[in-house]
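So, read this over?
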Amino acid sequence: MLKWRDAVYGQIEVNRPGDGLFDGEIEELKEFVENSEGAKRSDVLNVLGQAKAIVAIRVLDQGRESEDTLVKIDPLWQWLFANRQGLLQAGGEGYYDSSGLILEVK
């Protein structure tokens, strides 16, 4: 669980190669990227091909405004960008690196 004080803001799941979920998730993410257009498309596919783990967060608003929840989760993304290589994939938006949105995926 991802908590701040007494409130739950998300559920964290880490998937790695060989765990039964990782490979299927990577293939699904690649399919969405392959159906998109953008200058960074091949860069995103390359990162997905080299991925060693997926840190997935199921955001739980629990009656809060979505923005309030996302603000509480932002420090996790900041830490991951500062300490690990990779991308952030936001459903319905696309792929982000530490500089911002690099590939829009619907």
